[in-house]
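user: can you give me the structure for this one chain? tokens are fine.
assistant: on it. calling the predictor now.
[tool input]
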Amino acid sequence: MAIDYDIKDPSLADGGRYRIEWAAKEMPVLRLIRERFEKERPLEGVRMSACLHITAETANLARTLQAGGADLVLTASNPLSTQDDVAASLVTHFEIPVYAIKGEDDETYYDHIRAAISHRPHITMDDGADLVSTLHKDYTELLPEVIGGTEETTTGVIRLRAMAKEGALKFPVIAVNDSMTKHLFDNRYGTGQSTIDGIVRATNILIAGKTVVVAGYGWCSRGIAMRAKGMGANVIVTEVDPLKALEAVMDGYRVMPMMEAAPIGDIFVTATGDINVIDTHHIEAMKDGAIVANSGHFNVEINLSGLREMAVEEPELVRPFVERYRLANGKTVHILGEGRLVNLAAAEGHPASVMDMSFANQALASEFMLQNAKTLENTVYTIPEALDMEIARLKLEAMGIKIDKLTPEQEAYLNEWRAGTWCAWTRSPGVLRRMRAGA
């Protein structure tokens, strides 16, 4: 069957298939869901357009959705995050249309998003909300066909909640990012490890002994700070939220404004979801040779346009993914991965074992949306707790880990508001009988 696509090179497909199979070994929860989907076909005939990072892990999600009967099209959610061999394998081996090329310019990026929208999706799957926002801005005639969507990342959830607040969101969306099995693991452990991985791959520097400045202290930033500290860095956190700043202090980090951190830091990492977190006046105050990276979804957290105006010459590509800017004050600053997601621009993104849970959320959220869309309003929802717990249970089972279960007495105690000091109540068999009976 001939399918439409736009990828770098179909001949890369065999290498991509090996990469997909390697990741699959670390994704047992998604495998179990795929096996059920193959039998039940809950997505039969449903057109899906997914704007995600085209990686080996995403490929295994795509295989799961396809197994469930979905008519799926994929496009990239970031110009630098595509693994071209994986894209080739998805097209060649799995006959899934893909529109993604690593390093594509912004015009091509949005052309690819428009190609995915032309699939006329019933379900959207987004990572950053570019597909959903483009659909709402430029393809309003297609909105009545959309049943609902899912959103993978913090930045996208922020944008979607802004849309919902204004009454602009025209279909329900499940914020997969907000499920416990996503943000507690993917954001913290996945982003933490893969961000440090991207920085080290790009620069080959020793983290130990360096001062690492982490902008923000959300779940992603917590992971980055934790991993940097674990590798021997002196970590500084900058924040605008008093509670998060206080938490960072209690976790043992120095907390200060970015302007105070700028002359001290050796490595700077942003992960806030906001613009110009590192601005021109911060850059001007940095040490000569400072390294600046972004782990937020969009390349807006570093004021790159301002930096280009400050620079006295065009940036030099001194290593793959490392651009050196020379400033009028004689100092240099190094930007990693064009200011885009450093963990995907310069490395391979999150380990498959954490994406296993994130993409299990995506698959089950899609199924839930189809089953419940008629009762949902045009706003942003969190995945039901029962599905979140089931994903955690399956992950533990796959890891060979067993946990305790509540006894009937313990369940009764937790549901009995009259019970106080346990030892006083245990002397009364009648009370225990009533508790067990639910009286």
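assistant: here you go. The mean pLDDT is 93. The CA atoms of residues 79 and 105 lie 7 Å apart.
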